[in-house]
Amino acid sequence: MKALLLDDTHPFLEQDLQAGGLTLVRKFSAPLEELAAHHCDAEVLIIRSRMRVDAHFLSQFPSLKVIGRLGAGLENIDLAEAEKRGISCQRVPEGNARAVAEHALGMLLSLLNHLPRVHREIKEGKWLREPNKGRELQSLTVGVIGYGVMGSEFALLLSAMGVKVLAYDKYKQGYAPEGIREVSLEELQVEADVVSLHLPLTDETTGFADAQFFAGLQKPVHFINTARGPILKTDDLLTAMDDGKVLSAGLDVLEYEKSSFTSLFEDELPLTLQRLLQRENVLLSPHIAGWTKESFEKMGRGLAAKVLEALKAS
């Protein structure tokens, strides 16, 4: 059986696939026409985020049985078309859930204690204690939106620290363990001091955190997004910050990112991003929340196991 690898992967993934009897073909930059001409017999496709696997793409590979996505999301795959063709789509959100949870926590603690600002001030020779008085996380209520693999890991991490955690998930009931309270979105917007997004990117969630969402917040909040950039309308976040609805924001993802997550812009900075960069109460990172040495290894091993299991079931 042939596995077509269209992006860099982890050596563990490749080793385990080969041990499972697959022949690996690495084609990271070949155009679709070339791939289809020479590898239309591939039964396994391994991708990350760079390539859009749409209906036309899938039509070129009639033998395809399994698509493995080295990551948490499947938004770059036409899932309806894959299902129609009987193709199993596998992902590994559990591989980087801990990394995302720790990154979100790190962002939140940094914002609560003004670390980006005080670091700059000390470099400028300023030693300001009282203006930089922070907040203890245990004194705040954290609202987690989306209780999937990522959201639940973050919620459990906070709960273990004695933090009051609220969880909202539109499609689940009876999911939260002791120490985490399930609430409606409206309840979360009333009670939360911190809001953290952990939603997949779908047509339904695109633009979820918009002007209406921020208007529904009853208390000023600290806002964290380690999910996907387009879930947030950045202009509406900036307005909410101007209005005092949002005290600070930690964003590992931006709505301006390319689908490959490897770069942000081609030429000049988008105006909205320029406005974000001017704010001392905004902390940005380049989509690295789930990108650690350990998570990469876990995703590699986990995806190989899922792909091989899906092949057995096909």
Characterization of the model:
The protein is of the alpha/beta class and 314 residues long. The protein folds into 2 domains: 2-91, Rossmann fold, CATH 3.40.50; 97-284, Rossmann fold, CATH 3.40.50.720. The chain has 12 helices and 12 strands. It has helices spanning 11-19, 32-39, 55-59, 79-84, 93-112, 115-123, 149-160, 185-191, 211-215, 234-242, 271-277, 293-313, and strands spanning 2-5, 23-26, 44-47, 66-69, 88-90, 141-145, 164-168, 180-182, 194-197, 221-225, 246-251, 282-284. The strands form 2 sheets. The protein has a 7-stranded parallel β-sheet, with helices on both faces. Strand 11 (246-251), helix 11 (271-277) and strand 12 form a beta-alpha-beta unit. Helix 5 packs across helix 7 and helix 5 runs antiparallel to helix 12. It is elongated, with a radius of gyration of 21 Å. The mean pLDDT is 94.
Give a brief description.
This protein is an alpha/beta fold and 314 residues long. It has helices spanning 11-19, 32-39, 55-59, 79-84, 93-112, 115-123, 149-160, 185-191, 211-215, 234-242, 271-277, 293-313, and strands spanning 2-5, 23-26, 44-47, 66-69, 88-90, 141-145, 164-168, 180-182, 194-197, 221-225, 246-251, 282-284. Helices cover 38% and strands 16% of the residues.
